[in-house]
Amino acid sequence: MQRRLDMSTEPTNRSMLPEYTLVDILRWRASFTPDDISFRFFKEGAQETSRISYSELNDAASQIAAFLCSRGKSGQPVLLLYPEGIEFVVALLGCRSE
Known about the structure:
This protein is α+β, with helices and mostly antiparallel strands. It is built from three helices and two strands. A two-stranded antiparallel sheet has the order 1-2.
């Protein structure tokens, strides 16, 4: 089920916030701002070592989700062993995708 995100207004009461997941927001950003950078990683705070756009992140996370589903791991816990970086973010969001 695909939901449409309306991020044009800011609710004044937290109870009015819609219940969107990180994956919902990633998919929305990948649809409407695909080339914007979603994450940048820096070495020692100064030199950018890697970056990924919303479109690239969504595609990579979807591939991991498909792989996990093909192995019967949908909804099952999995262990992520990654150093800090984009690969971890991709894997984490891939585990949260359906």
